[in-house]
Amino acid sequence: MKERQAAGKIQTVLGIIDADSLGVTTTHEHLLSDMSGWFVEPRQATERRLAHEPVTLNNLWWVRSHTTMNADNIKLTDERLAIKEVLSFKCEGGNSIVELSSVGLGRDPSGLARISRATGLNIIMGSGYYIGTSHPVALATMSEREIAEEIIKDITVGVGDTGIRAGIIGEIGCSMPLEEGERKVLRASAIAQQSTGAAINIHPSPSDDLVLEIIQILRDAGGDLSRTIISHIGLWILGRDTCHRIADAGCYLEYDRFSTTAEVYPPYFLRGRHLKPLSEIQKINDIAELIAEGYLNQILVAQDICFKHCLMSYGGCGYGHLLRDVVPVMRASGITGEQIQTLLVENPKRVLQFCPARQ
After folding, report:
1. Alpha-carbon distance 234 to 326, whole Å?
2. C-alpha–C-alpha distance, residues 138 and 122, integer Å
3. What are the structural domain ranges in the chain?
4. Residue 271's pLDDT band (cuts 50, 70, 90)
5. Measured torsion, CA atoms of residues 12, 171, 291, 284, in degrees rounded to the nearest 10
6. DSSP letter at 260?
7. Which DSSP helix (H) or strand (E) runs through 230?
8. What's the whole-number mean pLDDT along residues 112-135?
9. What is the 3-state secondary structure (H, E, C) of 109-169?
10. Does the pLDDT of residue 45 top 50, yes or no?
């Protein structure tokens, strides 16, 4: 991928497209992924039985409340099912999907290319490394430059020997506390961004202070914050002042995890901190308030489907939920059609375009 070919364009798993061809876009999804690193073995004998059963209607009541305690629920590995499911997004008017299953999440370039051909959807694939617990052992001895060169190759040449190129850096995973390997990957991602002109998507640490530290790490390493997306706004309850500081730094605020039936989850606890996610109505209200405060051009929306129970085949809302169900509520909440067009079309088009490399 030469700079003159990529600047102002968007790179999908099937090649370069014009930015105007992107259309309605969800900026954070998983079509083929394996989140086995998140699996938590229950302590009780009866729940251990449920933990190793395939997801069915008979155990869905338990799976929805124990999302990472069912080994089958955290794997999306059926290509034919992915094709069937993602067509609900297309049928509702969707055009493009950013698939962020980076290294550590079972990234499958060839599978994504086949899904794109079968559905006619544009799929933009991610590059880089997920959270520290999913890092390969070899990463500990790699330098920042070596990690950056791997990401650059994914974008300019292709992943492995597939010839299928990534179009975004991410989802780059961060934990709490922020691990040294994650800091190294953040710095490497900023270096790769300078060399490729690609956007970065961050899975942030669930802490106001650490989110701001992540942004500072990227800034110090030469990252372009105006092309940096902070995911999971509303999953971790960040202060409104923190959201303002993220946006004022130039980053995009991504409200995702729609379609994950968050209302039925028990509260999340991480290292003693209560991390109950916002409901969908609360997210929509937050988006409306941020628009009123002047941040319309820095907001993205997505679903971040990564569990079986979110799929229509397993009783979930599916990939079409954002357009079928969420957008009408946005309109009813006072978000205008023009503003929704900005959220779903103009903002993704702006951030996903490659900019000229800086080195």
Report:
1. 15
2. 33
3. 10-33+78-352, 40-73
4. very low
5. 100
6. S
7. strand 228-230
8. 97
9. HHHHHHHHHHHCCEEEEEECECCHHHCCHHHHHCCHHHHHHHHHHHHHCCCCCCCCCCCEE
10. yes
CA distance 211 to 213: 5
Residue-level pLDDT at 46: 87
For the CA atoms of the chain, what is the radius of gyration?
19
For 60, counting Cβ atoms within 10 Å of its Cβ (0-12 exposed, 13-18 middle, 19+ buried), the class is: middle
Which one, of 153, 97, 93, lies nearest residue 121 by Cα? Answer: 97
Whether 81 contacts 313, CB under 8 Å: yes
Closest CA to 112 of 170, 17, 29, 189: 29
Q: What is the 3-state secondary structure (H, E, C) of 235-247?
A: CECCCHHHHHHHH
**Residue 52 contacts residue 46 (beta carbons within 8 Å):** no
User: Per the structure block, which two tokens stand in for 44?
Assistant: 């009780």
Using the structure block, give the residue that is written with the tokens 């991610």: 126
Please, what is the end-to-end C-alpha distance for the chain in angstroms? 15
Q: Is the pTM of this model over 0.90?
A: yes
DSSP labels, 22-35: --SEEEEE-SSEE-
Question: Regarding the domain with residue range 10-33+78-352, which homologous superfamily does it belong to in the CATH classification?
Answer: Metal-dependent hydrolases (3.20.20.140)
Three-class SS state of 343: helix
pLDDT tens for each residue of 223-243: 999 999 999 998 877 888 999
Query: How many angstroms separate the CA atoms of 200 and 163, rounded?
Result: 21
Rounded Cα gap, residues 179 and 175, in angstroms: 7
Residue 88, both tokens: 């609900």
The tokens describing 145, both together, are 């430059």
* Structure-token pair, residue 106: 């079972």
Q: Which residue has the tokens 């899975």?
A: 203
CA distances from 337 to 266, 285, 333, 352, 353 (A): 34, 16, 11, 22, 23
The answer to whether the CB of 32 falls within 8 A of the CB of 111 is: yes
Site of tokens 């950056």 = 148
